[in-house]
Write a structure and sequence with these properties.
alpha/beta; binds zinc ion; two-stranded antiparallel ribbon; 4-stranded mixed β-sheet; Cyclin A, domain 1
Length: 259
């Protein structure tokens, strides 16, 4: 069965990529334009698989177009480059609202530590471990046009789904070996504590303070920062940048122009 799934995906990845999809990718996923041609081809293949296997659902009046699908699958695929992609196995549906939406009762389940949101909370993204991601379209487009500082809600929510691949959303995704786990715990644990200290002392932090709410949020926030502001992350937190470069098998600071 796994063999046939792999074969099927291989065929899907090799499909021709429509011109309109390519245009949406270039307009809405700027990172794509900086990738070398072989990585662009890999990304296009992943997009085909995700669009074929995931259910996109428009909410609050939003109509799912090819542009919406390609853009969201594009960000999701960045996180899959250079690895044996599992295509977010626990995710089946991607719900998209036009803009910020009122949160459902719970959004991320952190093991035993269920995080229950206030009904009134307005959010731009959620990741459920029951098979769904909820995204707001407007902030994704703002981020694409460089208006969202370090934030990118699509990268954020898909990072939660990567984190969940090993069964628990705890800020530690599936890593290669014991050494990688040791490095992760030492570097990310240290940086998480340092962020806490800076917040307690009212210092301005480069890493978004939201990352201090839970190690899972720390990983998701740093994933956004790694791809959106790699040069500053590398300068200010070289060890964190190094751990993420190993994990994502990409070096965005070497790829993107300095701003
Ligand atoms: Zn989050």
């Amino acid at each position: 069965m796994f063999w046939s799934k792999a074969r099927r995906r291989e065929k899907v990845r090799a499909r021709a990529f429509p011109e309109a999809w390519e245009a949406a990718l270039r307009d809405n996923v700027p990172y794509y334009g900086f990738l070398p041609p072989e990585d662009q081809a890999e990304l296009r293949g992943h997009i085909h698989v995700l669009i074929g296997e995931k259910n996109f659902e428009g909410c609050g009046g939003l109509t799912i177009t090819d542009e919406v699908k390609v853009t969201i699958a594009g960000y999701a695929s960045i996180l899959l480059l250079h690895r044996d992609a599992a295509y977010y196995p626990r995710l089946s549906s991607i719900l998209v609202y036009p803009d910020a939406f009122v949160a459902r009762q719970e959004f991320v389940e952190f093991g035993d530590d269920m995080d229950v949101m206030d009904d009134e909370d307005v959010r731009i993204g959620e990741s459920w471990d029951t098979g769904a991601i909820v995204l707001a379209w407007k902030p994704i487009m703002q981020s694409a046009k460089g208006q969202g500082s370090t934030q990118n809600v699509a990268l954020h929510e898909f990072a939660h789904q990567l984190d969940l691949e090993d069964g628990i959303t705890n800020g530690v995704p599936d890593l290669d070996d014991d050494e990688a786990y040791d490095d992760w715990v030492r570097v990310m644990g240290g940086a998480y504590e340092a962020l806490w200290k800076d917040i307690e002392r009212n210092r301005l932090t480069f890493i978004d303070e939201y990352g201090a709410t839970h190690p899972a949020e720390f990983f998701a926030v740093l994933t956004e920062t790694f791809f959106m502001r790699p040069h500053t992350l590398q300068r200010k937190h070289a060890d964190v940048y190094g751990v993420l470069r190993e994990y994502y098998r990409q070096d965005p600071a070497a790829l993107l122009p300095k701003v």
